[in-house]
Structure formats: C-alpha cells, structure tokens
Amino acid sequence: MLNSSSSVFLDPHSDESLTAYDYSLPEALIAQVPLVPRDCSRLLVVEKDSSQHCIFRDLPQRLKAGDLLVLNNTRVIPARLLGRKVNLTFPDAPPLAVEVFLLEPREANCWLALVKPGRRLKPGTFIEFGAEHSPLLRAEVIETDEATRGRLLKFEVLDTALDFEAVLQILGQVPLPPYIASRQSQPEQYQTVFAETPGSVAAPTAGLHFTPELLETLKAQGIRQAFVTLHVGIDTFRPVEAERIIDHAMHAEWVELPEETVQLIAETKAAGGRVIAVGTTAVRSLEGIATQEGTLQPYCGKVNLFIYPGYRWKVIDGMITNFHLPKSSLLMLVSALVGRSRLMALYEAAIAQQYRFYSFGDAMLILPEAKVAQIEG
For 173-325, where are the E strands, in sequence order? Predict the structure, then answer.
C-alpha cells in the first residue's frame, strides 16, 4: 500500500510538491567570494506588481522613515575541527585523520557534531586535536544521533590553563558552506558587522550585505534597527527530502528575543511602520515565537517552525533575503511571502541577469503592497 506522502498522489506543480521548488542554476553563478565593499552587491526589489534591479546600498531609498529592520546578531563559531582517531590502549597504533563539525552544545562538555569518516567513529572511540604529542583537546564518541546522522561527543581540555572556548579559538576554523570551493575569503567576511553572540554554525547571510556606514545612513533616515539572536543549525545545509513538503520536520534552533526588540516592534506597528526581517533566521525567530507562544513576547529557548505557502503571517511585513538552494526549506519560506510561482519566475529572471547566488551572493528585498501582519495577542 502506498503511504499518504507518495508522489503518486501529488501534482508536481503543487505548492506541496518538493519538485515544484527545484530549479537549475549554472555553477558559475554560485558566489565563491564576497564582494568588497559588502553593500555593492545587487538587490532585487520585489513589490506586489513589479520588481526592480538595484544595488544594496540603495536600501535606504527603498524603505521609509518609521520602518524597523530586525537583524540576527548571532556570531559564527569556529565549528570545524581537524583531529585524529587515537587508540589510548595502544598509543603506537597509526592515527586516522578525522574532521569534526560542531552543531550544537548539549549537556556539560558535550556537543552534537557531524564527523568524518562516520563509519570509523563508533561509541567509545577517542579523537584528539592539536599537536600529535601534546594535544590540547580530546573527545570521546558517546553515542550516535539518528536524527542528524551525527555523534554526541564529550570533550576534555588537556591544557589546564585553557577552557573549551579558548581551545576552540586556537584549533577551530569558521566553516563555509560546502558549495563554496574557494578559500580566498577571510573568516571575518563570513560574519555580519553586527555579529555579537557566538553560537551559529553558519552565518545569517542576508546580514552580510550591511556595512557600518549603511547602518548609520538608515538610522539617520529614521529607519530603526532591532536585534534577535538565532543560532543557525544543521537545517541550513540539508535539503528537504520529503516528496510532500508538509511531511518535512524542522530541527529546533536556539533563539533569544529581548524585551527591547518586542517593544520596538509594537511601537512600529502602532505607528503604521513596517517590520522588515533581515534574513530567514530573523523571520523564523519572530514568527516561530509568535506561533509557539500565541503572541510576540520576550523569549529564550528553541523554535522549529516550518514556514511554507499557506502560512498566515503574524509579525513581519517584509524581508531581505539571499537567493537560496533548490528544494530548501528557505526557498519554501520565501515562497510563503511572495508566492511560489512568482518566486520561481523571479529566480529565472535573476539567473538571466547573472545575479550571484547563495551565501556570498546578491539579495532580494520583498515588500508586499499591503501590510501582511498584525500582532495578535
């Protein structure tokens, strides 16, 4: 018997079909390095019945005094560690090179991580990091995590003068997405200029376009800024696999929404301004909390809201976003705001215009004609 999610029962052009979110992108359009300065990237401005090609530094002219930008101030951690599998019983056994990609902290001294080669790293295995004869860090594989296909690692710092965070800064590398083959960019170019709270394994890339000067220009024109913290997790790198997208399960991500941001959003709404989320992470933060808690309020915890066409918006009135991977949950989120058919047509036009795609690529500003949300509560 075929189950309810079988593609046999699904129109491939339906908003619920994974196939409907696929598109072909020339490899040459995958941005390998960031532009300098950051705000010289292109900006596709999308309104109800029109679209316009601009430059990101034109953003102040596309917004209005009284609007509010909500930005994610998470900071990418040096989550990539290179080590070696060791045999503590037989220390002269040849080591095996290991790559560890930290995903999120769990209980004390433990992290969920992706590891390579996974088949060789079973529970009870030890990994060391640092110089071969004087390592700074050791990890024991505690268990396999079936949901992520990762491992739970328990870390021990071997230098008593250091703590885990200090060792991570010494040994770790800021991870770049797998589609970025070039290593010409500097680690700080994969951080926003307002990055503050460490915890992400990937940058909130819509925020990479801002410079300090652009932020000051926006303030001078009466366009206020507020912050939320969402630590980007594993779903950023994983495509949706369910043929019927509503069967996809999002992983929870840690979010902190301060009282000040809640107040600024309420003031903006009351004065008739628009709340513009910078990036899908800011969208997931605001909409996830409002959905989970019933209203927007200060919050510290996890959210796992999956937004796709048909979603009823509760907080945001528009968003800034980059161009996303085919069949990704991020593409589905943006489709919920602009419409899937129109979004795919915009992507086709952007490809024809040689826009740069993905993390270091160009951006879109989506401004529906009418305000799409009023806070409920």
Answer: 197-200, 224-230, 253-257, 275-278, 299-303, 318-322
Helix 329-338 vs helix 340-352: crossing angle, to nearest 10: 110
Query: What sign does the dihedral 33-38-40-41 (CA atoms) show?
Result: positive
In order of their start, the domains of the chain are: 7-76+183-366 (3.40.1780.10), 80-171 (2.40.10.240)
Which residues make beta-bridge pairs with 86?
Answer: 126
| DSSP three-state, residue 235 | helix
Q: Which of 38, 47, 70, 62 is nearest to 285 (CA)?
A: 70
Match 């008739």 to its residue by tokens. Answer: 272
**pLDDT (tens digit, 9 = 90+) per residue, 272-285?**
999 999 999 999 99
Cα–Cα distance, 190 to 194 (Å, whole number): 12
Q: Which two tokens stand for residue 365?
A: 């500003």
Average pLDDT over residues 50-72: 97
Query: What percent of the chain has a predicted confidence (pLDDT) above 90?
Result: 81
Q: Report yes or no on whether pTM surpasses 0.85.
A: yes
Cis peptide before 117 (omega within 30 of 0): yes
Q: Could you report the per-residue pLDDT of 224-276, keeping only the tens digit for each?
A: 999 999 999 876 667 788 999 999 988 889 999 999 999 999 999 999 999 99
Task: Work out the mean pLDDT of the chain and round it to a whole number.
Answer: 92
318 vs 365: CA distance, rounded Å = 8
CA angle 262, 267, 270 (to 5 degrees): 125
Largest CA distance in the chain: 70
